[in-house]
Predict the 3D structure of the following.
Amino acid sequence: MKLTDLFKEDIFVVTGEVGPIKGALSRDKSKVPQCVKEAELLKDHVHAVNVTDNQSAVMRLGSMFASVGLKNRGIEPIYQLTCRDRNRIALQSDLLTAYSFGIDNVLLLTGDHIQLGDHKEAKPVFDLDSVQLIKMARKLNEGYDLTGNKLENPIDMALGAVVNPNFEPLELQLLKMKKKVDAGAEFFQTQAVYDEGVLERFMNLASRFNRPIQLGVVVLKSPQMGNFMNKNVSGISVPQAWIDEIGSVDKADRKKKAAEMMGRFIGKVKHMVQGVHIMPLGWSDIVPKILEYAEIEAKQAA
Amino acid sequence: MHATIQKPIDEIVSFIKPGEKVFVVGCNNCAWKCHSGGEDETRKMAERLIKRGVDVVGYSVPGPQGMSLCKLSNTRQVLQENYKEQVNKADSFLVLACGQGVHTVIDATDGALVHPGCDTIFGGETVSENEIEEFCSLCGECIIEYTGGLCPMTLCAKQLLNGPCGGAENGHCEVDEERPCGWIMIYERLKKLGRLELIEGYLGPKNNAKWSRPRSLRVSPTEATFCSIAGRITVSNQD
């Protein structure tokens, strides 16, 4: 199922996210990898689940394989593909392969820099940037590779992109967003936003591109996490009020509190966006509660 | 200029076998500016090696200040004529210069054994006497007309050609909070110049074949030919 089909029907699109495990799939089939357990918790509450690509440049199980794994379990994956580790040949080949495995949605990103990860001496590739990557994927959809050679069978994937509403100067981020739209991006997921004003200012400027935008939220689990993200996670800003509120309850009650806070925020701003992308960072079990607080139901396509 | 930094002395000494006779060569241009292989550093290197028991048979920084070691004709003449006696005694040459300079010594000595005394780190601008900064990655396909003269291949950690990633924080790069985001620099500069439209256009993928190694340039007073695996590109400078 392509996410773009849902957007076309004006369905508020709800997606979650899992990160593949640090390790291989066990030959012992009774051992279910953590990312699958998390995705199973999301299954009946979201339309699709993003599968991250060696996120934060930490080496893990591949996003394509994990995406296929979810698909086989009846969970719609959004396969994330970054420019960091692959040149244009590998990027195209991976898209052909992913489509051949049944994957319908791809999120095309630059990728975090290698310096943020656990193999700091690796060679950063960045042969293409995200705009060029989107344009390349559109050409594959149209039946041609990057150099114009005809494909035996084209792919047919919904092409997603990312944008950061927190970015200053915003005009520069919007300039890049426009390039992504022109290149062929069909929907957007935002970086995590915690501030209604930031989202409003962004949406007022970005709605002119006429592409569905999903608000990105990262579940805030603790005040420590808020402080950590402010210090270490690029492009995310957690307001002090959020940090104080999650810190106002005991550890045992944080999941409940986090669900309430996230749900309340999403509920308040959902009218501005065409969907929400929840990044639970392991707390997939509270996603149903978040959606309940936000009064959102992942409606099925007609 | 080619920025170089001396290798640690212990590493340099480890290259030299017991009893090996070494001739030290510096460069009176870039390495001089970097204090990695000018006249003072070359003489000093000879002393430091002697102190550590290395048999140094001579040293030279070929040519006057401003003369590059990588100008083969000069280096060959100085080593083979002016320093003929010491050079003939040498088993090897320790070169305090960039990798081009090291190769120039190979050519100038008709294939002698060489040791690199420096790490060649980048091509840069000599911003001040004690500051060298990198602004060009020598990619072979210059796109800075569209970025206000600031190169995103060099100033952006991800070498992005169509705008910033989402990672900048307070105007700084996600890789290094000490340094500004290259794309914000480009944006601010073009905004000030009233030329923001320059970055609105799409820039396609780089032709990495022009960045293949090794590359060469054939020059004459009237035209030049750039040779890489992208092919031969000849340009006239006459009209």
DSSP finds eight helices and ten strands in chain B. Chain B touches chain A at residues 157-171, 174-176, 183-184, 187, 199-200, 202, 204-206, 208 (CB under 8 Å). Chain B has three domains: 2-122, 142-199, 207-239. The mean pLDDT of chain B is 97.
